[in-house]
Design goal:
It contains 31 helices and 39 strands. With 1167 residues, it is an alpha+beta fold.
């Protein structure tokens, strides 16, 4: 049987048996390739008429500079403009050049003329010019062949370059000789199944192939795109075949060049979001690495480099059946590729009218400045809406989305169409990134549960009832199955296919529509699925494929069985309860079904257009009319809709824009029937008015209004709102306008993507100036809305580049000017320099004085320590004591003290506990609790098992003959919060200590200094042989203590070191606040960096360990800090007293590390 022939054996990827090599066979491999390779899109015939005299569109060329430039653009063609079988030439005004044409879609006219086609040509711009126009003309050169499959690896030539792709590597030859080899970094395949090549495109100017490598565990695709100028882009696509969630392995590329070698390559970590600083002449680039914010680049000798898109230790989320990718550009001009693997995507642009001819999306008029200003705000927000990082490309909100969001793709087509109307290609980029993200992370590509393949995962697994990732706030884990009411917006993949010709988009469209045809219904508990009518209807209108129209009609006919006499319906399809109770949340609504605006509005997504196609379908037009009138009547006068019930206390104004779009579609249909649409037009006007005037007042999107009952404190003594109201009419919503909490800021995508569509529709029917009259209710709300600092601006100067205004002051937890501030901190004035070598003690004295000054007022010293032993326990070679002593004049604290048996005095170690965001214990992280403390014992054993290899390192030191003292830092253990453990209370303690003229770090440091003084008073301790040791915050405390006290003879500092620059990057744990308060010293960074403070310990012996898998402290920042330390110890003529070592571990102090550190301590303390 041919490798490519269809096999009846389904690929069941999820059962445990399918993960073993024994269960793998060629049939499974064939099925996998077939699922993800390209297949022709269906097309009908005769549903679109060829436009007589249809003209080819013109293209505006934007290229500038010298030399030939390649243009590659997907062009929209009106029906009949580009007949089947015809090609194109391009006239740039200077000359006529041939073009490659790759047909992407065809019209459902009788001749199947081209609808969208990728046009590729090379031209030479006029020097210094921009904005030339090119005209297209028909030629007899036929279009390129469509994608095809071939068994085996790939080898092909283009423009004097030979490209080879096989299971081992990608090789690029130039002038007949091997130029470079690129090897994918990915898990080893479990089977050596033969590859299958898909030639996506092969023309005179561009070559695009995908090579499939089936595997039962880690199947993959190597995608290669190359142009005739020798520019190559590769993307490795790897799928994780598993049912449960996991993390990504090492993924990336290893590049080696022949002969000439590479320029000096700087090591670069992408976690900061900074692009790679490519040296001149480097034939490689990393198009999306800075957007993914993972991985690194490093040189491998003089002729090779290794790029990891992510390293396994970074624990990048990778769910079962999901994909992760790694892209690299190579060859000539690698920097020209963007993250979509396109070069110069805006080099040619078709006029908006050309898009309107096939999408009927309209062409935006230019309105008066107040309205264009709001339009620009929305477009700017959408242009920058793609999330960075592990969920790159997802769109969860605007202007700035967070980790979590609804993540339903049904709002993506509106972004494509706004790009067509406006010509703003940044919107196209946002939409394409979203589709790619959806393909990789949000479509369920598993065959089990039965029938789920190709559907959409639930966007948030925790919200779906799976608590596995409840504590992870950094990534939105999806469900590991498909959910029918989340499967919508699959027509987005048609738009994406027409824009890019990427076979992945065609595959997603094929499988999502197949899933929806089987699993999406409106009569089985979720009437909201009626919104999918729009998906199927658009697809039918674009292709003429009759089965898609049938699916749209099926969904309505199913819904028809759930309609009430008034043609309305409830969410679950149950009969609507007449005269129902007051409802303020979803749960109560399920008990008394009602017409829910958020749900019932879905009927107006596609039913108006369906009714226009099927005017005689029973109750179809009536449903459109009834729902539209209900939506208009149920709208709040402010311009939003209440949720979940029309009389609930919470009003959503931001999301109202989607309902306005729904009403506009219904009104368009009813208007064509000759009906009065004034109530619908009024409702749309109210929503637009709230948006325009809300922006004028707040500089953002008016979010909503919450009920007055909460903001006024009307609910007391455990009351709920249901204690106040029995019926909807019992509640007076008017008080919300004057007393309810008003919000403004961002919006979920549905509140933003429809703005231009709705504004243009309204402007075609009424004077937009009407939108500037607030009306009574909205005016009351706007009076109390948060005002923007620049509310009186005459224009949106934040978007004008000549003003230099960013438009925000904070992003990703950092002030917007953080790069400038870091640059200004490059030279720390009190850093040790060569001139300080002659007087090391003087340098240390000046540095210590500055540290003490910045630490703030210390707690007063105790008159005496007055220790008391309150319990004791024999532990064989040593004794454990629970003691209390005065750590200051204000506090008497408990501590754990371990004393070896035998004649002393002994060396001693102050064991400093970590932070760990684990506050219930402190000293017990270092020393085993006494046996009578059973509750603490379980907590301590679990923590030590997690961070210390299962060993209490204080007890291990005592067994080696050291006295060990461990004391709770303020906020931990027996010095914790009276009200109980609270992570969020850290900022309260930190802020209030600042208000008292102190710092949290200062209190901890002074407590540690006094603890050392206390140790030195003990008869069992040799005061000349006291050391400190600790992990994480305990490490910070160790080097801080060693820097400030000459009484401490040595320090072992484990896993807390870095530079301010490294720890002040977006995403770093130190930028999160909260825990950072315990290790921040106000003003100190103006004088000394972290390693400079630690350097004040020189020339005493110091040991610093870190882990190369420690995500809290980036390796580069650690190494830079160590360089500062090494400089200081060298200038102090004691380099041998400094030990630094990078372990291949995460953030921990395991037994092997302990043994090495303890041996070092023994040597320093001269036991």
């Amino acid at each position: 049987m041919s490798m490519l022939s269809r096999c009846a054996v389904a690929l069941l990827l999820l059962p445990a048996t399918s993960f073993s090599c024994a269960a793998w066979d060629d049939a499974a491999g064939r099925e996998w390739v077939e699922r993800f390779s390209w297949q022709p899109l269906p097309v009908g015939e005769g549903t679109v008429r060829t436009t007589k005299g249809a003209r080819l569109p013109a293209l505006r060329l934007t290229g500038t500079g010298d030399g030939p430039q390649q243009v590659r653009v997907s062009v929209p063609f009106a029906p009949g403009a580009l007949p089947a079988g015809k090609g194109l030439t391009v006239n740039t005004g200077m000359r006529t050049v041939p073009a490659d044409v790759r047909v992407l879609t065809v019209h459902p006219d009788t001749g199947h003329s081209v609808r969208r086609g990728l046009v590729t040509f090379v031209y030479e711009p006029v020097r210094g010019a921009s904005g030339e126009w090119a005209t297209l003309a028909l030629s007899d050169t036929p279009p390129l062949s469509g994608p095809s499959l071939e068994e085996g690896a790939f080898s092909g030539e283009l423009g004097g370059f030979l490209l080879e792709v096989d299971g081992e590597a990608v090789r690029l030859h130039r002038d007949g000789a091997l130029w470079m080899t690129l090897r994918p970094v990915a898990p080893k395949r479990a089977v050596d199944a033969p590859p299958v090549t898909e030639v996506v495109e092969s023309g005179a100017h561009f070559l695009w192939v995908r090579v499939f490598f089936p595997d039962p565990d880690w199947p993959r695709v190597i995608e290669a795109r190359m142009d005739s100028a020798g520019r190559l882009a590769l993307r490795l696509h790897v799928q994780r075949v598993a049912r449960k969630d996991g993390t990504a392995p090492d993924l990336g590329w290893a590049l080696a060049v022949e002969g000439e070698g590479l320029p000096e390559i700087p090591s670069h970590d992408f976690s900061t979001g900074a692009p790679f600083p490519a040296p001149d002449g480097l034939p490689a680039a990393f198009p999306d690495a800075h957007l993914l914010r993972r991985g690194r680049v490093e040189a491998k000798g003089g002729a090779a480099l290794r790029y990891l898109r992510c390293a396994a230790e970074e624990a990048v989320p990778m769910q079962g059946m999901a994909w992760r990718t790694a892209a690299i550009a190579a060859g000539n001009d690698p920097e020209s590729w963007n993250d979509l693997l396109e070069t110069a995507p805006g080099a040619a642009v078709a006029d908006p009218a050309a898009f309107d001819a096939i999408y009927h999306c309209g062409v935006s008029p230019v309105l008066d400045p107040p309205f264009e200003q709001v339009r620009r705000f929305h477009q700017e927000s959408l242009a920058n809406a793609s999330l960075p990082g592990d969920d790159f490309g997802n769109v969860t909100g605007v202007p700035a989305g967070g980790v979590f969001g609804m993540n339903r793709l049904n709002h993506c087509p509106a972004i494509f169409e706004d790009a067509y109307r406006s010509g703003d290609l940044r919107l196209r980029r946002t939409a394409l990134r979203w589709c790619a993200n959806f393909f990789d992370l949000s479509i369920w590509w598993g065959s089990l549960p039965q029938g789920h393949f190709g559907g959409t995962r639930y966007n948030n697994s925790v919200a779906n009832g799976d608590p596995t990732h409840a504590d992870d706030k950094t990534f939105m884990w999806r469900s590991n199955d498909a959910v029918h009411f989340c499967t919508k917006g699959y027509d987005s993949f048609f738009y994406a296919w027409e824009e890019t010709g990427d076979p992945r988009m065609a595959a997603a469209l094929r499988h999502q529509t197949a899933y929806a045809a089987e699993m999406v219904h409106t009569d089985r508990g979720e009437c909201r699925n009626i919104g999918d009518v729009l998906d199927f209807l658009r697809l039918h209108q674009f292709t003429g494929h009759a089965p898609w129209l049938d699916q749209a009609m099926r969904l309505f006919r199913e819904l028809r069985t759930k309609l009430g006499e008034d043609d309305l319906f409830s969410q679950g399809g149950q009969p609507i309860v007449a005269d129902g109770p007051f409802i303020d949340d979803d749960a109560h609504g399920y008990d008394a079904p009602f017409a829910k605006p958020y749900i019932i509005g879905y009927a107006l997504q596609g039913l108006p257009a369906l009714a226009a196609l099927a005017p005689d379908e029973p109750r179809l037009a009536g449903t459109v009319r009834a729902v539209a009138r209900f939506m208009a009547a149920s709208q709040d006068p402010v311009g939003g809709w209440r949720y979940p019930h029309p009389r609930s206390s919470r009003m959503l104004v931001d999301q109202a824009m989607e309902h306005a779009a729904q009403l506009a579609r219904a009104a368009t249909f009813l208007e064509a029937q000759g009906e009065d649409i004034t109530p619908l037009l009024d409702a749309v006007e109210r929503t637009l008015r709230a948006r325009v005037l809300g922006y004028e007042k707040t500089g953002a999107i008016l979010g909503g209004v919450n009920g007055w009952e909460v903001s006024t404190g009307a609910l007391t003594d455990g009351q709920t709102i249901y204690d106040l109201y029995q019926k909807p009419a019992d509640r007076d919503p008017a008080r919300d306008y004057t007393e309810g909490a008003v919000s403004a800021g961002g919006s979920s995508p549905d509140g933003a993507v429809y703005f231009s569509e709705v504004l243009d529709w309204y402007a075609a029917r009424r004077d937009p100036a009407r939108l500037l009259d607030a009306g009574q209710e909205l005016a009351r709300v706007l009076e109390r809305a948060p005002a923007a600092a620049d509310a009186a601006r005459p224009e949106d100067y934040r978007r004008r580049p000549d003003t230099g205004v960013r438009g925000h002051g904070m992003a990703e937890r950092l002030p917007a000017f953080w790069p400038e501030r870091l640059a200004a901190m490059a030279a720390f004035p009190l850093r040790m320099r060569p001139e300080d070598a002659a007087d090391v003690d003087g340098w240390r004295r000046r540095g210590r004085e500055k540290v003490f000054e910045c630490l703030g007022t210390p707690p007063p010293a105790p008159a005496s320590f007055a220790p008391v032993v309150v319990a004791e326990e024999d532990r064989g070679a040593y004794t454990a004591r629970r003691v209390v002593f005065n750590v200051s004049a204000w506090e008497r604290v408990p501590a754990l003290l371990l004393v070896p048996k035998g004649p002393g005095p002994f060396p001693a170690v102050l064991g400093l506990h970590d932070h760990g965001a684990h506050f219930s214990i402190g000293k017990e992280k270092v020393v085993r609790p006494l046996a009578d403390d059973r509750k603490t014992m379980k907590d301590a054993e679990e923590w030590v098992g997690k961070c210390y290899g299962g060993r209490f390192f204080g007890d291990a030191l005592a067994a080696r003959g050291h006295v060990v003292l461990a004391v709770d830092a303020l906020f931990w253990g027996e010095r914790g919060r009276a009200e109980g453990v609270s992570y969020e209370a850290q900022q309260e303690l930190g802020a209030n200590l600042l208000q008292l003229g102190m710092t949290w770090t200062g209190v901890v440091a002074w407590d540690d200094l006094r603890s050392v003084d206390f140790l030195a008073t003990l008869p069992e301790v040799d005061p000349a042989r006291i050391a400190a040791a600790g992990l994480s915050m305990g490490c910070h405390r160790t080097w801080m203590l060693c820097a400030l006290s000459d009484r401490v003879a040595a320090g072992a500092a484990i896993c807390w070191m870095g530079t301010t620059e490294a720890l002040s990057q977006p995403g770093n744990n130190q930028t999160r606040g909260q825990s950072a308060f315990s290790m921040l010293v106000p003003g100190l960074r103006n004088w000394l960096d972290y390693p400079d403070v630690a350097s004040l310990a020189c020339p005493k012996p110091m040991l610093f360990y870190n882990g190369d898998q420690d995500t809290l402290f980036p390796v580069k920042g650690v190494e830079d800090a160590w360089a500062v330390l090494q400089n200081a110890w060298s200038l102090a003529c004691a380099p041998e007293r400094l030990e630094t070592r990078m372990w291949s571990v995460p953030h921990e102090f395991n037994v092997e590390m302990q043994e090495a550190a303890f041996a070092w301590l023994d040597a320093q303390l001269k036991r």
